[in-house]
Design goal:
The chain has two helices and two strands; from the N terminus they run E-E-H-H. It is an alpha+beta fold and 71 residues long. Strands 1-2 form a two-stranded antiparallel ribbon. Strand 1 and strand 2 form a beta hairpin. The longest helix has 20 residues. The chain is extended, with a radius of gyration of 16 Å. The chain starts with 8 loop residues before the first strand and ends in a 5-residue tail after the last helix.
Length: 71
């Protein structure tokens, strides 16, 4: 996948010694959406910012569905 709002997956592997799986992803500076929302009361976020977040999420959903991912 290649989309501005999706963090890319670089590789994944299993550690044969303990059976744990590891995911290596693209570095993204800052905080994730869950942390951002938990640091603010959702209703204290300006409407324009809420709409931007919603719009970004909808763009990702459209991209994924048009590539038949998550159906």
């Amino acid at each position: 996948l290649s989309h501005d709002n999706i963090i890319s997956l670089k590789e994944f592997f299993e550690d044969d010694t303990n059976g744990l799986f590891f995911i290596v992803m693209e570095y993204f500076p800052g905080i994730d959406l869950k942390t951002y929302l938990s640091n603010k009361h959702t209703f204290s976020i300006e409407e324009q910012e809420r709409m931007r977040i919603f719009d970004d999420l909808m763009k990702v959903m459209h991209y994924m569905h048009s590539n038949q991912i998550g159906r």
